[in-house]
Amino acid sequence: MEDKKQKLIEIVRGAARKTTRRKPARPAPAVRIEGSHNIVGDGNTVIHAQTVRPRNTIDPRASELSEAQKLRLRELLNEWIAVHNTVRTRARPLTHAAAWSSFQKKFRVTSYHILPLARFDEAVRWLQQQRARIDGMKTAPLRDARWRARQIAYIKARCKNQLGDAELYRAYIQRRFCKSSLAELTDDELAATRAYIAQKTPA
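The chain above was modelled as a monomer; its predicted structure follows.
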């Protein structure tokens, strides 16, 4: 009887051993890459590798323009902005960023430093033209207290520096308006004199 019990116990234990299953091995943690520089492992380990981007730098010493020439361009740009915002009061204000963007598009440059020397005079004329368009508006003399002084200064400077005759305007105003001084001209006469001098070419 005792032997039967022992055999039965052994049979049950043997059956139990056969049915016992091993626990499945834990799978290796998944690793994935997110974006361009994040590596995530085991769901909570993050390695951040900073993206290195090349920087475009401009060496001012390599510029073809002198410091005086670059200063001249900046002054003309600022004058254009100031005149626009003084005269065109009903229009959207001209910001430095907007004016500079127009200059960049015109000359295909991102800095004064890389403007070729051969295009400096062209850049000066273009900036002067932007201001001249505003000076030519009928409301300009009324809204800009410095309008007359600016027109007279332009006429005298162009006659002396570009046309080679400081008194060149005098014959025109005597013949056209019977006056001998720019200060005697009305605003319309002064505007006409400026336009005349602006279109003249050196002899």
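The mean pLDDT is 82.
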